[in-house]
Amino acid sequence: MSKKRQIPLYESHIDKNEIANISRVINRKSYWALGPEIKDFEKRLASLSRTNFSLAFNSGTSAGHALMNYYNVKNSEVIVPSFTFVATSNVVIMEGGKPIFADIEEETFGLDPEDLKEKITNKTKIIMPIHYGGNVCKIREILEIAEDANIKVVEDASESLGATIDQRPVGSFGDSSWFSFAPNKTISTGEGGAITTSDEDLYSRSKLFRSHGREGDSKYFESNSIPDYVSLGYNFRMPSMNAALGNAQLDSLNEIIRKRRQVAAYYDLSFKNLEGLSVPKMKKGVKGVYQMYPILVNEGKAKRDKLQSYLMSKGISSRVYFEPVHHTLYYRNLGYGECKLPITNKISEKVLCLPIYPDLETEQQKFVIKSVTNFMEQVKNV
């Protein structure tokens, strides 16, 4: 009996540079924390996002948490999508704020500017759009609305490092941004995240928050003086080995993105005339990075779920990104279950993300395409 093939949803790209970078940190036997790799990584991220500052964190969630702490969202409202990973709204609650869910639009699956306007109140302090799946949301329209209402914009760019609109990168539009470097992101540090901003006060205070409120943190292992602790904080630091991995990943970023776009283009071509299926679209001027490849099964949830089960039987991983946050038990218990978000609900019942990563082999992708096509052509109605 032949072994059933297994095609994962994602796989991190690595080569000898990643191994060499991590080995250097291990072999020096010191500065596994607060090593020079972290500053190098931060400088490169700031340059990539065209901001003055960047701070590396041990996760995207930690980075988002630090931003909500800086903006002091306690007893304030923060407008977010529900069509996102739960961390986007969790970080608001962690700092005593109230997430207000706005609906998404069907082109980018980002915040709908029109619904966003309706959700603004005198308690709104921040608008936090996400750039979904490597795409770019309607960020310019959102910025206009925010400027008129004198509200800060924080980009959740966790899924879209390297994406641009009219050659301007995500992470450069808002007052600040946060990124994730989890294993399924454009680049990965295993676990990790970062803030980017041109606000020096935000940078300085978030640096304290990241490391117990300790001053002079970068010199902690070099100085005999006793450091002072000037504010509350956590240990949200990124380890040196993770930053070393991130630097190697950044060396390959252009190639990683090129390969992701190549895989996406083949999916687009193969599915463009397949009845009952819709594929991702990019706005004019957008160059996405395809952190995910979301298809929509137009008939809805029942058929989408059957397709997912069928793919699993063939050894192909797929995933629903995302189930709405307001449908989760925690948020239902907070009273969010009755939120009226019709587009969020509709898209979440149709969406299914297919395998996409730089080293997805052509034969593997052909098998995914064949499997999806066979199912859609043979199962006409559910």
TrEMBL record:
This is Aminotransferase DegT. Belongs to the DegT/DnrJ/EryC1 family. Transmembrane segments: none annotated. It holds the Pfam family DegT_DnrJ_EryC1. Keywords: Pyridoxal phosphate. It comes from Marine Group III euryarchaeote CG-Epi6. The keyword Mitochondrion does not apply. GO terms for biological process: polysaccharide biosynthetic process. It comes from the Archaea. GO terms for molecular function: pyridoxal phosphate binding; transaminase activity. InterPro entries: DegT/StrS_aminotransferase, PyrdxlP-dep_Trfase, PyrdxlP-dep_Trfase_major, PyrdxlP-dep_Trfase_small.
